[in-house]
Amino acid sequence: MKKTVLVSGGAGFIGSHVTVELIQSGYDVIIADDFSNCDRTNYNGVCQITGRQLPLVEMDFCDIAAVRKLFIDNKIDAVIHFAAFKAVGESVSDPLKYYTNNLGSFLNVLQMAREQGCNVLFSSSATVYGEPEELPVTENSPRQPATSAYGNTKQMCEDFLRDCVAAYPGVRGIALRYFNPIGAHPSALIGELPRGVPNNLVPFITQTAIGKRECLSIFGNDYPTEDGTCKRDYIDIVDLAKAHVCAVARMLDDRMEQPYEIFNIGTGRPLSVLELVNAFEKVNGIKLNWKFAPRRAGDVVAIWADPSLANEKLGWKAERSTEETLAAAWAWEKRLAGKQ
Ligand code: UD1
């Protein structure tokens, strides 16, 4: 019997790539999305890549009646929860928007996991580590007080999951802490679709390269790093998606060692902003227009993962090179612009 995975926020950047990998690994997937932060491009792309018209439920996960109906109408073996707002700056100016939506929707997922007995995979973030004292960070590195409501929701949802798993038999959970997901599917049929001016580095780079933005600002050149720019662990979106398949299989095949587990999902290879920009220019043969600008508030100097726990326990490893990832990101931007 095929197992069914519910992917909330399945039409978004990460959700769409995860859906493709789940289908290609033999799972049935139900996509739920309210299209509040994306259009149908990625949903259509997922159907094209998989050659299937995938079940799509247009709904808001804060609506408990709709969530309950979904769980009662379908036998759901695991739920992967992506349905959340993700703009860090906006979460500082409008925290209630983030607390209401991101916490409310996840509480509904947990309520249904309790009622129906279901495995829960939560999409957490390296943001929970704040500015780490030691690098690379392991899952045992201490969490730091969040500096944004967005970051706070990630910490709170991790704790909600931990407590529900401890209290309710039949609920098991994994939190994956993503480092910096970038890139696009090699088919260029799905990718990142930022609304308005991108906050994240790679969409800003590709939009500058295509001519949608005039110039990339590199935020800060006086950080205590080799070249003065911040260092991050950029993880390919397809590699990241595959980690979800490994985590779902671990839950559904009864291989968890604890009922609640946490894994870092990163490459373990730090890159500075300048190194990433140089790699993008080199692999795509493009001269990017960029300049140094003041530091951005809230940025940590450097963070990268120790991914050895995920390597060992999930049997997962980041495989794609930064060059492949940056070429895919550029192919996606060109396709969006209708140039390919
Ligand atoms: C950010 C969020 C993180 C979230 C992640 C989702 C913060 C503090 N962190 O991570 O919580 O999970 O996005 O993808 O917002 N940069 C530039 N110019 C730009 C954009 C970025 O120089 O136009 C630099 C940043 O200063 C940073 C690096 O590029 O050093 C990566 O930035 P970004 O892609 O926004 O990711 P994070 O800030 O690491």
3D architecture notes:
The protein is α/β, with parallel strands linked by helices. The protein is built from 11 helices and 13 strands. Strand 2 (28-33), helix 2 (41-50) and strand 3 (56-58) form a beta-alpha-beta unit. Helix 5 (95-116) runs parallel beside helix 6 and helix 7 crosses helix 11. The termini are far apart. The mean pLDDT is 97. Residues 88, 125, 127, 151, 180, 199-201, 204, 216-219, 230, 232, 273, 296, 298-299 line the site of uridine-diphosphate-N-acetylglucosamine.
Please describe the structure with a list of short key phrases separated by commas or semicolons.
16% strand, 13 strands, globular, 7-stranded parallel sheet, two-stranded parallel sheet, alpha/beta, 340 residues, 11 helices, binds uridine-diphosphate-N-acetylglucosamine
Overview in brief:
The protein is α/β, with parallel strands linked by helices. It has helices at residues 13-24, 41-50, 64-73, 88-93, 95-116, 149-167, 201-210, 237-252, 273-284, 308-314, 322-336, and strands at residues 4-8, 28-33, 56-58, 78-81, 119-125, 172-178, 180-182, 216-219, 231-232, 234-236, 260-265, 271-272, 290-293. It contains 11 helices and 13 strands.
